[in-house]
Amino acid sequence: MEMNGRVEKFMFDVKYKVIQDTLDGIMKARARAGMSLNKRQAAVITEEMENVLWNCGLLRDSSPQLY
């Protein structure tokens, strides 16, 4: 993070140990509560499903329009 023209590295600089420990504690508490940092992945659309969407007119190669 840049502050007043200086680059500060909160995650790695020893002088920010209190901030690092606090963040670590919060992350561990949330992990115990079932909150994780895993990114959710959208379901994969097969080629057949894509073709159905094209054939139904739900996918287009033109500008979007309001219906």
What does this protein structure show overall?
This protein is mainly alpha-helical. It has helices at 17-32, 47-55, and strands at 2-3, 6-7. It has one domain (2-55). Helices cover 37% and strands 6% of the residues. It has a two-stranded antiparallel sheet with strand order 1-2. A hairpin with a 2-residue loop joins β1 and β2 (6-7). The protein is elongated and about 60 Å long.
Name a few traits of the molecule:
2 helices; single chain; mainly alpha; about 70 residues; about 35% helix
Task: Summarize this entry quickly.
By secondary structure, the chain is mainly alpha-helical. It contains two helices and two strands.
How are the elements arranged and paired?
Blueprint: E1 2-3, E2 6-7, H1 17-32, H2 47-55
Please tell me how large the radius of gyration is: 23 Å
| Secondary-structure-derived class | mainly alpha
Which strand-content bin applies to the residues?
5-15%
Please provide the count of β strands.
Answer: 2
The stretches of 5 or more residues where confidence is low (pLDDT under 50) are none
What number is the mean pLDDT? 83
Number of domains: 1
Instruction: Give the neighbour order of strands across the main sheet.
Output: 1-2
Major sheet description: 2 strands, antiparallel
Helix percent band? 25-40%
Q: Figure out the total of helices.
A: 2
